[in-house]
């Protein structure tokens, strides 16, 4: 099987390389193509075969290039690399399709079937695995990249080439020669478009650009693939898994650390746009379900719950009078349209009936869909729900109306600056920065115990103070509209003291996120440097030793998230020291929280790059740091890095 995939990759790379070469000849001329081809052959001889003479010739050829020729050569080799990656991606698609055969899937490392088989061979019972998955969460996190230069136009063109490659493999299997010729012409056209498209951005990305770029991945990947992955896992296990197992995360629009362009307005915008994308996806799927589920009441009765749902839709169309599923879906669509309007201020495209009462929560939407599913199963139509209804239910459970949990992130020194300004204007402390750590803690605890806010109605605060408080106010409003899952974390970069955590509690209190009995946002310290990692356990021990903190966390869900940074510690101490420091900090924190009854520790291991490459800890190495633990969480960033790896 692996040799078949390797052959497929080679064939696709040859095809794409040939088409790129033909495009170069047509667009740039024979001489330019000959120059590029000569450089390619010398490079292969030098790098692959160790030909020293070829290396010298290559050096001379490159030095002779004019600036314009150099640009063309760079673009040619860059696009060839992109096309080769597309061929590899297509091979992975073919491999994924082969996984429908359980026997084949067990032989491929990294598949669900292979993993479950290995666990079975190691004596892990399925019941234990199901219990683990009921508490675990895997959350891909899209992080902010203000330096991203690849254009969406290039990404879209490459996506089109990938789709054409997928189509080509099907046509090859069916021996459709005429269609293959048409497909090759379309590939050639797409590669020509790619060559004539500017590769890099000429202007800097705005935060809104970043948000829109991230959102473009949802319709092509996450909204469909995460429910499909859940379905595959359930099929292999033979049991349902927790709706909370797969959840998306997002930093774009809420990560202010080092980016002054992230404001309360960008936070509001990213939340609204995420909601709009997911609600429009639901509306489209509900509309398509209405077209599909033409089941007649005369031929197959419904259920009382379905009939009630259909009646509430008040559908005036007589053609659907005996079609309860379609009537129910008309009502569901109307409620979703009202939800879209209420949460985002935008309107749905179609209206069989006018928008009605919006859904109070995504759970209510799921309940209505489940009524349809139950009716189909009861009336021998279970297969009708497999292609669209069940995936939609899984999607709604995973994405809700917010689509992704939006994390807030800011540096500890900014939090300190804001708190200092509040204290000064309130007449409580003229020089907060001059206090030692013990005095800071005592003062902050007094502020937390006082029910009165620090803010004075007409006081003039620093612009940064106003901006940071507005961020927390937007978080409060978003949670009131979308529920607590829309924003769960307040991440503190450069956490160095216990007071860094207390300052965030004070800021939450100012906007109502912290009450006497409940903490709205999980305060997440980020320990990054070697020194910070060494101090992680003492800081958390000191924090939980403060009066009322442990009880507050327990009443607020009993979860403490902590991030351990790989990237900065690697720069600070090197690969080996960084990994060793991460390991020691993880063990010390896990031991500390074993003492905290009713509180679960989730350690977020963050690193700048793909886990297991470039010296970073591998999945296995990180997970092995917690032998005997039952609960686990892995959060993956856009680059594939582990953000959260385990519970203590």
What would you say this structure looks like, in words?
With 648 residues, this protein is α/β, with parallel strands linked by helices. The chain is built from 23 helices and 11 strands. Strands 4-5-6-7-8-11 form a 6-stranded mixed beta sheet. Helix 19 (498-511) links the parallel strand 5 and strand 6 (522-527). The longest helix has 32 residues, at 67-98. The radius of gyration is 28 Å and the shape is globular. It starts with a helix and ends with a strand.
Write the layout of secondary structure elements.
Blueprint: H1 2-28, H2 30-49, H3 52-64, H4 67-98, H5 102-105, H6 112-121, H7 126-135, E1 137-142, H8 152-174, H9 177-196, H10 207-237, E2 248-250, H11 264-292, H12 304-313, H13 324-344, H14 362-378, H15 389-399, E3 404-406, E4 408-411, H16 412-425, H17 437-449, H18 463-482, E5 489-493, H19 498-511, E6 522-527, H20 530-545, H21 549-555, E7 559-565, H22 567-593, E8 600-606, H23 619-623, E9 633-637, E10 642-644, E11 646-647
Parallel strand pairs: 1-2, 1-9, 2-3, 4-5, 5-6, 6-7, 7-8
Antiparallel strand pairs: 8-11, 9-10
Helix pairs in contact: 1-2, 1-4, 1-9, 2-3, 4-8, 8-9, 10-11, 10-15, 11-13, 11-15, 11-18, 12-13, 13-14, 14-15, 16-18, 16-19, 17-19, 18-19, 19-20, 20-22
Task: State the strand order across the main sheet.
Answer: 4-5-6-7-8-11
First CA to last CA: what distance? 40 Å
Q: Which structural class should the secondary elements be placed in?
A: alpha/beta
Using the alpha-carbon principal axes, give the shape.
Answer: globular
Kindly state the percentage of residues in helix.
55-70%
Rounded mean pLDDT score: 85
Note the beta-strand portion: 5-15%
- The number of E-state strands comes to 11
Q: What is the overall number of helices?
A: 23
Biggest sheet character: 6 strands, mixed
Rg over CA atoms, rounded to whole Å, is: 28 Å
Low-pLDDT parts are 607-648
